[in-house]
Design brief:
There is one protein chain. This protein is α+β, with helices and mostly antiparallel strands. The chain has 10 helices and 9 strands. The termini are far apart. α3 crosses α7.
């Protein structure tokens, strides 16, 4: 039997380990079984679409934790290039990759709209007036039927050029690509604020989208993120959502 190898990466919800030639993503105990099957189902759908995502090999319990056995991503992380390279080149490369995801039909994936409605309804830090305003605003925005990654940022992209692999598809969904780009904006706004708007403008230029159409989703995406337990971002997220901290 193959032994679990060295730690390759660690996040809020899971850790990734070497497992022979493959990678083993082990979720933390709180939601490990449900999350494992959810991500495996998402990856199975993406495999049919020939997107640069890892192929699932198994779902199971490993040393008392549930996880997904999948293809191992290249060692190099796109974030290194994104952080160290000035100018538009890394922005354009990431936006091209993002667009290639959005070109695919999202049939079979969870609804992004339904997820946003559910998360805004249960976001504890919103007052009732802000919550009602945000839900009405969400109701007015156009739904979509494209694949959305749900958590795309430079640290979830590995490799380079034709060898890219995008990881962490737990939150993949079917929806409006502009909402997915706005999600990336919110993530970059916290981690790399000087690049966040540049990325939105690059994606908009590349796809013929309107920057205003992407930012129309900002209050909703920020409010929904309040349910993710990122306490150090709460005040910033409330401001982006148009609610008082």
């Amino acid at each position: 039997m193959i032994e679990i190898g060295r730690l390759l990466g660690s996040g809020k919800e899971a850790e990734v380990f070497e497992y022979g030639a493959l990678a083993l993503k082990l979720y933390r105990p709180a939601a490990s079984k449900a999350s494992s099957f959810r991500e495996a189902a998402n990856l199975s759908i993406l495999e049919r679409l020939a997107l640069p995502a890892p192929k699932v090999h198994a779902v199971g319990e490993f040393d008392g934790r549930w996880g997904v056995l999948m293809d191992r991503a290249p060692n190099s992380c796109f974030a290194d290039q994104f952080v160290s390279t000035a100018g538009r080149a890394p922005l354009e490369e990431m936006a091209q990759l993002h667009r290639s995801i959005h070109e695919k039909p999202g049939d079979g994936l969870p609804s992004l709209m339904a997820r946003l409605f559910a998360r805004i309804r249960r976001a504890e830090h919103l007052d009732s007036s802000s919550r009602n305003r945000l839900l009405a605003q969400l109701e007015s925005l156009p739904d979509g039927d494209r694949v959305c990654h749900g958590d795309l940022h430079p640290w979830n992209i590995h490799g380079s050029g034709q060898g890219f692999m995008i990881v962490d598809w737990l939150d993949a969904c079917c929806g409006n690509p502009l909402a997915d780009v706005c999600r990336t904006y919110v993530l970059l706004h916290h981690a790399m604020p000087d690049r966040a708007m540049d990325y939105v403008e690059t994606y908009a230029s590349l796809t013929g989208s309107e920057v205003s159409g992407i930012l129309a989703w900002l209050p909703l995406i920020a409010a929904a993120r309040l349910t993710e337990g990122v306490v150090n971002e709460n005040d910033e997220l409330l401001r982006l959502a148009g609610a008082s901290p």
